[in-house]
Write a structure and sequence with these properties.
Length: 106
């Protein structure tokens, strides 16, 4: 039984979130909770029917994301345990950040 090991990246995918929260409050609360693990580039939460209860949180470093994932996995967030995984795709914010950094370095 092979469990798929996600490649660690700095964007986390969070689901099983309480979808009763207004989108802005959800983003704010997630930001406050996750920012204790490092600088956050972006929090994306969509309120469409298909995307309810899900969010993507992008950190500056993979280590920040890993710390958050390990610490907050199953954390009771507004009455529901969060499910956290590495996102399959980098967020736009991460792409922009990496471009900006590489331009500074060159």
């Amino acid at each position: 039984n092979m469990t798929s090991v996600e490649e660690p990246i700095q964007t986390l995918y969070v689901n099983n979130l309480n979808d009763k929260l207004p989108k802005e409050q959800l983003k704010e609360e997630l930001y406050l909770l996750f920012s204790q693990f490092g600088s956050i580039l972006d929090v994306v939460a969509l309120k469409t029917e298909r995307m309810k209860g899900q969010a993507w949180i992008s950190f500056v470093t993979v280590q920040n994301a890993t710390d958050a994932l390990n610490t907050l996995q199953g954390f009771e967030f507004f009455g529901k345990p969060m499910k956290i995984a590495y996102s399959h795709t980098k967020s736009n914010a991460v792409e922009r950040f990496e471009k900006a950094v590489s331009m500074v370095v060159e």
